[in-house]
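Example record

Each entry pairs one chain with its bound ligand, uridine-5'-diphosphate.
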Amino acid sequence: MSMRAPRLHLASGFSLSCIVPVLNEAAGIASFLRRLHRVMIGITPRVEIVVVNDGSTDGSAAEILRCADACRIHYIELSRNFGKEFALQAGLDAAAGDCVCLIDGDDQHPMELIPEMVQRWRAGIDMVYALRRFGQSESWPKSMARSFVHRLLTSRSGLEIPVGAGDFRVLDRKIVQLLRTMPERTRFMKGLYAWGGFSSEAIPYEQQPRTTGTSKYTFHTLSDLAACGITAFSTTPLRLVSLLGLLTALAAVVLGLWIVFEKIFLGQPIPGFATLAASILLLSGIQLLGLGIVGEYVGRIFDEVKQRPLYVVARELNRGALLESVQEGTRA
Ligand code: UDP
Ligand code: MG
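Structure tokens for the complex follow.
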């Protein structure tokens, strides 16, 4: 954590951007955006809501555009569903505020916390994140899996990725600039926020259950995200494979010595087919496991070297027109 220095130069006024990723939230998005806008202008008059439509197919676009002018919405429509991490990055690339807030569009994050988060940012904290209390409004297997992945990442990457910290947070402009320079496709935002090492503080909150729509994260997409986080921030699995190889080799040596001992000193015949079959199965299983883990990293290198864009913008409305004083309207 770095030293706290109040942002006195912003005393005359600062701008606030909120980034909202949206995938099929038509039922509740318009009322959510109106309420969010009210909360934001209660903080500062210079606001924009960057709504990133991540390939919705349910009429979310029309709902968002219905309140675009009233709510100062900078609308970005991606050409297809790229995933939340990429939708957030599209928002970060476009957000123009001094202070940038990330919040889900499903109303599960209590927007009433934003004034307090911004207040702490104004007091000099670079990143203020909301910390969900463990297990709330989520099935316990999902909570346990999240908790396991976060703990593993924290212990292996050396970064502070607290259990319960999600994307609901307020970032200083310099963190946004840093995130814009990070080109990786294996994108695990919670790790990237922490990577910069800027000062941060948590505010605990109770997550609301969804009132409309359903979670976009299935067991499958969550396990993809977990694999992404682990491979992006740690090489521990590769080290485990080496360790497993070493242990197997040791076991083979011990077994070999035992067989020789049995033959010479106990006069036992060398055991045949069953031992052979079992050891071949064990070794090939371990080799395939190792290959799979190495393959996971090689696949990600393959994704990185292609250098494809992180997302494709199909339509964009009101870019830069929303803030009265826009610092930089250009994408990094
Ligand atoms: N979302 C998105 N792209 C995706 C998945 C989700 O933009 O591929 C959005 C979604 O519309 C919501 C937020 O990300 O605003 C969080 O998603 P969700 O509520 O499904 O996640 P959960 O709260 O279950 O973790
Ligand atoms: Mg949600």
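The chain has two domains: 8-215+308-331, 236-306.
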